[in-house]
Amino acid sequence: MHLCSIFLHALYFLNYWFVALQGSELNLSTVFLLKGNDLFMELQKQKPAGQLIWQLKKIRIIRHNPKGDTENFYGTKAEFSKNNYSLQIKNVGLNDSGLYEALDNSGRKDEVIAEYHVTVQEQVSPVVLNVSSVSPSPESCNVTVTCSTQSSSLNSTFTCTNQTCSEDGGDPAEVVTSDARLNLYLSNGSIAICNHSNKVSWSKATMEIKPLCSVMNATSSPRVQLIIISSCLVGFIMAMCILGICYYKWRKNNHPTDNRETHSPGSDDQSPNCDQSTTVYSFLEPPSFPLEPIPCQTASPEGIYAQIENHGSV
Fold it and tell me: Model pTM?
């Protein structure tokens, strides 16, 4: 009986301690909030019997007495409700993170009647998912992808067969910082997912990797490689033939053959250096010196001279 009594008392003590601990934890609320949103806090259980004080990191925000007078130390950013004693902080920033407390100042010692542990976070940056390498083989295919953000990156290799893909090592790649988490993992045996998240936001990029192995295996077969090489060789030969024909036509048009006709000594054709038209000189007055035709290198045409003289009237 004595041992049973001790056991019951110990069990009662543990139960009382657990209830008290649970009750103290219920007064503390953990809140994660996106930067720029509004924070709303209220008294969930106990109402103040005397003066109420809202404070952040021991710095007063609101002081409200039972007479209804309210003193605001936060300006327009804080809004207090006299009906339910709630407090609203507008457009929160990173500096608004911390422990908010509601104190009842009715007794000799301030009693904490509400607590909010608030963490303000920014929107996470977008992610970029790229293929780093693809290594095909007859049995399997290894695909390495890289997931990156503005501040961190990670990569992971997936092994794909005809049936499905799996992660090397079995565990997803992960980078954890103080305010965000970056994960790279495989879903449905074929889809690589990169996820960047924190408590208030997330961004994700996906990529199906199994078709990459199918394309690489198709292009890496000996038959396909022979076809590609043959096509490139035929195309090169045709291009050289076309360039040769174009060059021949250009050379023929810009450098014609000099077909010169031979002339007999008694031919009537004139030298190309002389003007074949009859030269006519016309003067209004008699010249002061005799005129002679300009000699050519070969036979010169006869010059026709015409003079206009003044004749007296008949």
Answer: 0.57
